[in-house]
Amino acid sequence: MKSSIQKAKTALHNLLRDPVLLAAMAAAVFSALFVPPSKAYWGYLDLRVLCLLLSLMLVVAGLQKVGIFGIAIERLLKLVHSTRTLAAVLVGVCFFSSMLITNDVALITFVPLGIMTLTRAQKQELLIPIIVLQTVAANLGSMLTPLGNPQNLYLYSLSNMTTWQFLEVMAVPWAISLLILAAMILFIKSEPVKALTSASVETAGAKQALPWIILFLVCLLAVLRIIPYSLALVSVITGVIIFDRPILFCADYSLLLTFAFLFVFIGNMKNVPAISAALSSFVNGRELSIGILLSQVISNVPAAMLLSNFTANYSMLLIGVNVGGLGTLIASMASLISYKLYASTPGAHTGKYLVVFTVINVLFLGILREVTV
Question: Of 116, 133, 303, 329, which one has the greatest count of Cβ atoms within 10 A?
């Protein structure tokens, strides 16, 4: 009981320290000056997106806790015999896993494993380039699927695209991203390393992982609109209570609240005719460029939510906010995860990290911006 209370207090403390959440709350309060609070506010909330986000976060936390991702990286590391192959594994696992477990979870899971593995191999000089490439890989790999990141899930739900239509829109930038990443890895000098395993990774048996795999499939069916999202949420919460109740505290509730406040802000702005008309006129025909530019300042999730209400060209906006996750450190909030993980390592050179991060991100951004025009 004490443990649960402590976790609740920690979660509340983290909520109050989240600058994006506080900014979204301030925006919602400000917008209420133009449109006074009423029952209509409830209609602003996209319950499908909020329920699916919560379901996915809880299930992925369960999969992470039983060590299923550790099992995957363990098997891949057995194939490693050179620094270039090691880089390919560490970057590739972020790129491909992010399509299903989201970009932030991929980084939370595999960046620490990358740091540990490179340190054990005495290749600390590769920490910065590989972590930066892992970050880029997670942000770009996640663009292919509705599950990959919050802005994708939101725009997929809002636009009523079919899964095939979504894949058609994102397939080209995703494939080009993969090719650029592969080319970047070739610049890493190939030096021999001994066979590596992450001995400190704790994993559970198949019996412990099976319920979470089943619940993940339930979430996938809800995302694909095969079953109701409400059924998925009830199934997931029931499963969490039965199998591992503390996981209820592992969801990113600050993100859910941020979404809720942004729904209120955007709904109110849309109900102010002058503001709505001005924004619609400004955004229409410029979805790609404005999506990229706005993401650099407020990050790509809020940018997607704001701009989506003033355009019907969801395809270009989808590409814009995904590619817009490149560039500044805050363009994708997931990028901050990698930075914080690297900054906490002994002997970290944060200034050098930021320089390398910016150069590589701007390079990717420039190429993808050109090929998606």
Answer: 133
Quickly state the pLDDT bin for 199 (edges 50, 70, 90): very low
Give the pLDDT score at 240: 95
Q: Long-range CB contacts (< 8 A, 24+ apart) of 343-350?
A: 345/115, 345/119, 345/127, 347/124, 349/128
b/e sequence 148-184, b meaning 16+ C-beta within 10 Å: bbbbbbbbbbbbebeeeebeebbeebbebbbebbeeb
Q: Give yes or no for residue 306 having a pLDDT over 50.
A: yes
Q: What percent of the chain has pLDDT over 90?
A: 51
Residue of 263, 335, 255 whose CA lies nearest to 295 = 335
- Decide: helix, strand or coil at residue 299: coil
Residue 241 CB: number of other CB atoms within 10 A?
A: 11
pTM of the model: 0.84
Summarize pLDDT for 257-273 with one digit per residue, the tens. 988 998 898 888 888 88
CA distance 100 to 270: 33
In sequence order, the 6+-apart residues with CB closer than 8 A to the CB of 300 are 149, 151, 291, 321, 322, 324, 325, 331, 332
Specify burial of residue 302 (Cβ count, 10 A radius: 0-12, 13-18, 19+).
Answer: buried
Phi-psi region of 102 (alpha: psi -120 to 50; beta: other; left: phi over 0): left
Token pair recorded at residue 59: 């299930």
Per residue in 29-82, pLDDT (tens digit) is: 998 998 898 888 898 888 998 999 899 989 988 988 887 777 777 777 777 888
What value, to the nearest 5°, has the Cα angle with vertex 131 and ends 125 and 137? 140
d(C-alpha 254, C-alpha 15), whole Å = 5
Quick one: CA torsion of 157, 94, 358, 350, rounded to 10 degrees? 120
Q: Which of 372, 364, 287 is nearest to 133 (CA)?
A: 364
339-366 residues labelled b (16+ CB within 10 A) or e (exposed): bebbeebeebeeeebeebbeebbeebbe
